[in-house]
Amino acid sequence: MKRGILLLLFVAFLTPFKLFAQENQFSGWGAIFHSQRFGKHWGASFDGQFRSASHFDYLRNILLRPSVNYHFDGNKMVALGYAYVTLNGRTASGDKTFRPESRIWQQFTINTKFGSNNTLQHRFRLEQRFLGNTTNTNNHYFAQRLRYFARAIVPFKHGQAFIKGPFAALQDEIFVNVQNKEKVNNHFFDQNRAYAALGYRIRKEVDVEAGYLNQYTKSATAYTINHVIQVAFYTRF
After folding, report:
1. What is the CATH number of the domain that holds 155?
2. Which Pfam family is one of those matched by this entry (predicted)?
3. Model confidence over 109-163: pLDDT tens digits?
4. pTM
């Protein structure tokens, strides 16, 4: 079962190259992910992400995403959160554009183990999206999106608790529009993000990793593949 899921992640990673790509972009993403436990059940999370435009021309997105978490059954968690996302763009004439987005989101996460010390996370997230308009910031519209995320961590050292050392990370996330898709791209499918990275666990609570992310996005009339170099920093306390 676990090997089948890993194989599915690998196939998802390769799939975008076989589809009908019409545009290729190249960008860089930096991210910080933090989770904090307050007790047996309650906790909080926060991630901040910074994403460049194609060819690293300018900072396109800033994403700030806090949440309140409730842990139960040892390996499950539900969360309620908010996200603020900026979208900076450029017109054909070079003029700057700006579109803000606010999100309220709900999430269910399951963490499992396979092998001696490998971990696999499943995450289901429903987002209520309040999107601004680039030409009229007073004209906002609403849409909902569902996301499924799977991430595997495979340490290079086996047979002992993984508290320090190198590891490989493999993940995939698919996004689908479940309400007002005509406001987003007029399609049920929104995007897929496949990611492979190498990382190092500095200590039990701190990871750093760098890898390649393939973002396959469906717009109203075309497909785009964004080739991303991502650097991420994780803390858990």
Report:
1. 2.40.160
2. DUF2490
3. 999 998 878 999 999 999 999 988 765 555 688 999 999 999 999 999 887 789 9
4. 0.88
Helix (H, G, I), strand (E, B) or coil at 6: helix
How far, in Å, CA of 13 to CA of 15, rounded?
Answer: 6
Question: Do 225 and 215 form a contact (C-beta atoms < 8 A)?
Answer: yes
CA 60 to chain centre: 16
How many separate domains does the chain show? 1
Tokens 């320090």 map to which residue? Answer: 164
Residue 180 identity (one-letter amino acid): N
Structure tokens at 50: 């910074």
For the chain, how many residues are written?
A: 237
CA distances from residue 128 to 70, 102, 209 in whole angstroms, order as listed: 20, 8, 30
Amino acid at 143: A
Return the residue matching tokens 């309650």: 42
